[in-house]
Automatic annotation (TrEMBL):
InterPro entries: ArAA_b-elim_lyase/Thr_aldolase, Beta-eliminating_lyase, PyrdxlP-dep_Trfase, PyrdxlP-dep_Trfase_major, PyrdxlP-dep_Trfase_small, Tryptophanase_CS, Tyr_phenol_ly. Coiled coil: none annotated. It comes from Chamaesiphon minutus (strain ATCC 27169 / PCC 6605). This is Tyrosine phenol-lyase. The modification N6-(pyridoxal phosphate)lysine is found at residue 257. Its cofactor is pyridoxal 5'-phosphate. It catalyses: L-tyrosine + H2O = phenol + pyruvate + NH4(+). Signal peptide: none annotated. Keywords: Lyase, Pyridoxal phosphate. Its EC number is 4.1.99.2. One of its GO terms (biological process) is tyrosine metabolic process. The keyword Lipoprotein does not apply. Residues 46-422 form the Aromatic amino acid beta-eliminating lyase/threonine aldolase domain.
Length: 456
């Protein structure tokens, strides 16, 4: 058969509000042309993020009723611990309120001032925590990742030469760990291959350096390995995930993505001494080490979400929906990052709006226009997200100036995808009349969340 369909049916619905163009004009101006500052009530199709936006299953909701809200030793924690040990394979688990809570603790225990952290492209919160702990992030992703048109099947791969050059330049003693992400969000949701992970592991072994995985979308990464890497066509997603994690010494995790929950995350480690330190720090920033800022019911929902997330039919439908929308845009010759990634379609704003210089925030402008056109909310992933160099104070000028159409898990139908594609097409036809933006308010940290803009 040529068609696929979702491996679930809809039991509860949430009505959407359809706004007029005049209402949207007012809303986006009030939001300073920043889609993060819109009220969700004014949004029709919300593709801002796949983070915390999933629809939970009846099995997860049933788990919410089984919350053990004891301060210490909740039975839901032990269930969560067991599921992470089973599917991800790590020894010690510390729950955190979400991914960045784990990143904070990890960075504090491992990074000393003057250290370097090589990684396959940065993620905003991950890099900031590395920097706040005194480290410097070094991008060692392959060059193809910075080229939106490259069809490399594993654009999340680490360039082994860049990695060993970095190690030789700064010395292994200055590298607390190699920061590996699968899939790579800022590169367009691009995967890293198992072969590459294995090679990075061998290098890390040779120099005695740890590898820490950002496991946020590692299940989606496993799907691409299954589809694109010869030795893995007949392996289950669960088996691939286990092997991928086995090459690493621990992970930070935002459960709000792969694990199909609205809130939650964890830090996992294999080294008992590091675990000891981390479980001591978690009580300062998150909560006791058996809840880490999560309610018992939320830990139960995450434990059950993990089980569902590694089902082959779930992940095929999930990534399949993203590919469906992406393929439509490709067919209509709209510039998008290729190959289509795991969680989102990324419009290439440099190619979409070539007449707007990067200093005038083309991706930010395009995101505002998609909202004006059809009430679709997306996210800038370009110069605004990249922030400023902490030494020089200049903008970072990333090669990739993108708008992310992020697909929440199990939330929207194929008709929503069709409508989205048509709205993008409409904006594309009228692109010549768009002008850039000026930033009129710039927060110090993670500016993209709260910056404000005005039309040029
Ligand atoms: N790592 C990656 C790769 C992420 O995409 C995110 C969050 C985090 C870490 C941080 O996790 O939000 O739970 O604290 N990404 C969201 C997004 C915000 O929209 O891509 P968190």
């Amino acid at each position: 058969r040529r068609s696929w369909a979702e491996p679930y049916k809809i039991k509860v619905v949430e009505p959407l509000k359809i706004t007029t163009r005049a209402e949207r004009e007012r809303a986006i101006a009030e939001a300073g042309y920043n889609t993060f500052l819109l009220r969700s009530e004014d949004v029709y199709i919300d593709l801002l993020t796949d983070s915390g936006t999933a629809a939970m299953s009846d099995y997860q909701w049933a788990g919410m009723m089984m919350g053990d809200e004891s301060y210490a030793g909740s039975k839901n924690f032990y269930n969560l611990e067991e599921k992470i040990q089973k599917y991800y394979g790590y020894s010690y688990i510390i729950p955190t309120h979400q991914g960045r809570g784990a990143e904070n603790i990890l960075s504090q225990i491992l990074i000393k001032p003057g250290d370097y952290v090589p990684g396959n492209m940065y993620f905003t919160t991950t890099r900031l925590h590395q920097e706040l702990a005194g480290g410097t992030f070094v991008d060692v992703i392959i060059d193809e990742a910075h080229d939106p048109a490259s069809l490399h099947p594993f654009k999340g791969n680490i360039d082994l030469q860049k990695l060993t050059d970095t190690i030789d330049r700064v010395g292994a003693a200055r590298i607390p760990y190699i920061s590996v992400a699968g899939t790579v969000n800022m590169a367009g949701g691009q995967p890293m291959s198992m072969a590459n992970m294995r090679e990075v592991y061998q290098i890390a072994q040779r120099y005695g350096i740890r590898i820490i995985l950002d496991a946020t979308r590692a299940v989606e990464n496993a799907y691409f390995i299954q589809q694109r890497e010869a030795d893995y066509h007949h392996q289950t997603i669960a088996a691939i995930l286990r092997e991928f994690c086995a090459y690493t010494d621990g992970c930070t995790m935002s459960g709000k993505k792969d694990a199909l929950v609205n809130i939650g995350g964890w830090l996992a480690l294999n080294d008992p001494e590091l675990y000891e330190e981390a479980s001591n720090l978690v009580v300062i920033y998150e909560g006791l080490h058996t809840y880490g800022g999560m309610a018992g019911r939320d830990m139960e929902a995450m434990a059950r979400g993990i089980e569902e997330s590694v089902q082959d039919e779930h992940i095929r439908a999930r990534v399949g929906q993203v590919e469906y929308l992406g393929q439509k845009l490709i067919d209509w010759k709209i510039p998008v990052v290729v190959p289509i990634g795991g969680h989102a379609i990324y419009l290439d704003a440099k190619a979409f709006l070539p007449h707007i210089p990067q200093d005038y925030f083309p991706a930010q402008r395009l995101a505002a226009e998609l909202y004006l056109e059809a009430g679709i909310r997306t996210m800038e992933r370009g110069i605004v997200s990249a922030g400023r160099n902490k030494e020089t104070g200049d903008h970072y000028y990333p090669n990739l100036e993108l708008v992310r159409l992020t697909i929440p898990r199990r939330v929207y139908t194929q008709a929503h995808m069709d409508l989205t594609a048509e709205a993008v097409e409409e904006v594309y036809y009228n692109r010549d009349r768009l002008e850039g933006l000026m930033m009129i308010h710039e927060p110090k940290y993670l500016r993209f969340f709260q910056a404000r803009f005005a039309l040029k």
